[in-house]
Amino acid sequence: MRPLDEWEMLVIQCFTISLESGMNGIETNYHVVRDFSKKYAFDVIELYQIIKSMAGELNSGRK
Questions:
Q1: I need a labelling partner for 13 at 20 to 30 A (CA). Which of 20, 24, 32, 48 fits?
Q2: pLDDT, tens digit, for every residue of 5-38?
Q3: Residue 33 Rama label (left phi>0; alpha psi -120 to 50; beta)
């Protein structure tokens, strides 16, 4: 699937760089999302929720 616009491309980039391996599978590094949000003037809470839901979907497919 290809990103439809610049927003989706940036969300995918943020998702990719914020992933970490944890005890319960894939985890998201909040500090990376916060810094990314500052750089591109995004709402950090909204972006973090999107990234967390993407990580949750990724974890649900691991079982």
A1: 24
A2: 888 999 999 999 999 988 878 899 999 999 999 9
A3: alpha
The token duo for 1 is 């699937």
Q: Answer yes or no: are the C-beta atoms of 50 and 11 closer than 8 Å.
A: yes
Cα separation, 25 vs 35, in Å, equals 23
The candidate with the shortest Cα–Cα distance to 28, out of 53, 3, 60, is 53
**Torsion angle of the four alpha carbons 27, 46, 17, 58, in this order, in degrees rounded to the nearest 10:** 50
Amino acid sitting at position 42 = F
* CA gap 62, 37 in Å, rounded: 28
Helix (H) or strand (E) holding 27: strand 25-28
Q: Which residue has the tokens 């649900």?
A: 60
